[in-house]
Amino acid sequence: MPRWTVDAPATYDFDRVDTLRVRTIGGSVAVLSTGERACLDIAGVTGLPLVVSHTGGVLTVSYEDLSWDGLLGWLRPDRTSATITITVPKDCPVQLGVVTASAIVSGISAATSVRSVSGAITLDGVTGAVDARTVSGDIEAQGLGGTIGFNSVSGDLTLADGSVDRLDAKTVSGRVTADIELDRDAALRVATVSGPVAIRLPAGTNARVDLRSATGRVLSEFPGLQHSQKPGASTLSGDLDQGDGGAEAPGNPGVVRITTMSGQVTLLQRSQPGPPRAAADAAGGSW
Amino acid sequence: MSPVFRHGRLRLYLLKLLDESPRHGYEVIRLLQDRFMGVYAPSPGTIYPRLARLEEEGLVTHDEADGRKVYRITDKGREELRNRSDELSDLEDEITASVQDIAREVTQDVRETVRNLREELTFAARDMHRNGPPPPRGARPPRGNSAPPRGSGWADPGTYRDLEQLARRFSRELRDAAAQAQAVSEDAVGDLRTILDDTLDRIKAEVFGKPGATRPDAHRPDAPRETVSPEDGPGGAGDPGRPR
User: What ipTM, to 2 d.p.?
Assistant: First the structure.
């Protein structure tokens, strides 16, 4: 089994990589998609040496005796770090586990899973099933698609320009900010304890909405939602896109469910609809 | 734009790509994408206005083929390329940058977008929580009849609302103009972007740039339109006399 111990800068090329697993501590890990050969670049190794193995298309970069389970119990991030950059084909599933290292994944269309303790997670154009979990790092994402799971304790979750089929975001105190479009029949669920939530959807989004906060305020820029205020629960619910008189978007309405204990919830409306709807909106007299 | 192309170097690189062969705008975008290992893709919104600018300067020209523009370098363009050949070889070194550099670019790019978004939505949410949700569409106050500004500056929500209303009205009228024009080509969008970018630069310099001028202009609903009007050729996008 090809296996190397790496304690100095090195670059490796691989003929075939169809699964990538990286477990690391400090520094950074970047995974980029490529149409060419898979490539691993390691620099700035301090502390323990890395162990690289490549067997049957599975590329693993890790430390000796550092199992998935042992990752969190094994913390010396200040002394152990490396800058790891990997290019793989875009359909290669990716699993990253980091402690303080920043993690970057770009252009992958296969299942992508990223776990971090305090390292920031950056995702760019990742369109497979994405699952990102962190304790205190921020998750920052752009151009995601498909099924997305975000989870943090205190890290902020921010998602720009995505077209989402399923988004499940949970955080205790982190802020959740998203500017996205919903695919047909999409489900967007956000739950926080104290973190504020601001979601912006395009005008004309066809969705059934349920926004609730136990003690925070709940506001929507979309008209026509029913407001109800009871002790311990402020809710806004109803259907978006009911005013366009017959110009129904195809497919079933999506579902938007935002729940928080004490955070405030804001549903904003992006006023420029996408090109296919622009003409209909202009003709229908809505802005 | 990516920091890889500092100091107007994207322009130089565009000339180089067109020197190799005449190309569609889309092909140019694909080639740039290839050089960055598929990791960085400049948007049409970055490339088309720059091609248009190069054309204005006479460095490139285009032919129509199958309804699409094929860009070609001119002799003047080749001369510029020759004069800047040192810079070009530097640039090529930078472009074959290591994957590490590309990863850094991606991170910066996402971080910047996300940070701007977070600020924008946080600001919008704060504004809404302070001023309450907007009235339903039917109950929207008549255009141009916004509440008189109390106080001045950004701290005043009324001023901000006026500005917001202006921006909305502009995009609405722009959309109407586009709908009337029926087919809007990619090139037209490129032209539009150039015009709007220039206009925004002018607004920044002439309206917001002058100290003292910001406040009176910012809350007079028709002020930015005056600034826009000399520029808004196609379809009368900023025409105040919009029939509706």
Answer: 0.79
